[in-house]
Task: inverse folding
């Protein structure tokens, strides 16, 4: 399976045409949250409709800046893996949107206990899959989560899950400046950075997993 992964779109549309061929050639497009800027249903529909022009299949979670109207659209379209899981071509995808609490008090934040519950609910739905992909908005604590002022913005619950459970790939975002790839307990953690700035990741689900990151 070939995955085109992006995150933190924040309503920006100017890079979609440049990314079109990569999305067309991918088997799956994965969105790790913060889809909109204005947060309403209309703007969410507009962003997703641009991706739908090129994507064969889409999996998504919402971000901490995505309002409940945006969350409803993702759910209605059947793309969401927030608190749920789905198996695609033998690979189990599950996830959690939003973020742990931030100093900015953004619109969609959860306690660490809630994040853990959402992850476990999705994992139970795909338990027994050949491979596992965790889709989160917030990265695991101390992995691809360092902010520009040096603080750690990741979730302890995501980290604890990856410390205790075999997962092949974790696709995340949230901390734009923490773009990159890192290994954690055999899991390849990919922070795709901000698509608002043209950043993306291409992942080949071979063994081993390979990741190519770029900027449009």
Result:
């Amino acid at each position: 399976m070939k995955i085109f992964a992006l995150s933190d779109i924040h309503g920006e549309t100017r890079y979609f045409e440049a990314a079109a061929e990569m999305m067309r050639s991918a088997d799956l497009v994965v969105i790790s949250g913060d889809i909109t800027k204005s947060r309403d249903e209309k703007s969410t529909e507009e962003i997703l409709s641009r991706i739908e022009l090129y994507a064969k299949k889409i999996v998504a979670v919402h971000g901490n800046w995505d309002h409940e109207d945006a969350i409803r659209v993702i759910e209605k379209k059947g793309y969401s893996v927030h608190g749920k899981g789905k198996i695609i071509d033998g690979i189990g995808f599950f996830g959690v949107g939003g973020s742990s609490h931030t100093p900015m008090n953004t619109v969609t934040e959860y306690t660490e206990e809630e994040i853990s519950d959402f992850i476990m609910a999705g994992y139970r739905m795909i338990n027994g899959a050949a491979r596992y992909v965790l889709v989160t908005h917030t990265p695991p604590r101390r992995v691809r989560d360092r902010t520009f002022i040096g603080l750690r913005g990741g979730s302890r619950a995501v980290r604890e899950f990856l410390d205790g459970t075999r997962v092949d790939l974790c696709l995340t975002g949230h901390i734009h400046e923490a773009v990159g790839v890192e290994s954690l307990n055999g899991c390849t953690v990919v922070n795709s950075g901000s698509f608002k700035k043209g950043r993306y990741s291409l992942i080949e689900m071979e063994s081993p997993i390979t990741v190519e990151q770029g900027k449009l």
Summary: The helical segments are 16-25, 41-52, 68-76, 112-126, 156-164. DSSP finds five helices and eleven strands in the chain. The chain has a mean pLDDT of 96. Residues 2-215 form a domain with the Purple Acid Phosphatase; chain A, domain 2 fold (CATH 3.60.21.10).
